[in-house]
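>> received
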Amino acid sequence: MSYMHERVAYLKGLAEGMEVDKDSKEGKLLLQIIDVLEDFAEEVEEVYDELDDLSDAIVELDEYVDSIDEDLSDIEDEFYDLDDEDDDFDDDYEEVECPECGESVFVESQLIGKGEEVECPSCGVIIEFTDDCECCGDEDCKCCEEEVEAEAENK
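>> returned
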């Protein structure tokens, strides 16, 4: 931005070389315009300096965020350790459809077996699990088990 300062200094030099009369109306105007241009040049230089500082800060923050992202990724890999061999998710959880909103909810298998209640995270309805058959109400019914086995075979 020194280019702007150089141009303003050149204008000042021209005004002095032309021996502009500071007391005349035109001379006062011309010298005031040059002073204002000098103030503008200084302000613009300050703004560019601040922009350079901000640009440097953005680059530094971007590198820092990338570093944090890599660290978080490493922690996730260590914490969750999702190997294909250790994928017990299917064994520990069952997918249940909320009777109110129809959303799929994954519930621990042991909760279903104990007849516990679970709140749907989407709509807040309490989903009750009982040992009774949904279609006939019988506790030892085999009809629902056959439907579940048929669905599993189709997948």
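>> Helices lie at 2-17, 25-80, 89-92, 109-114, 143-154.
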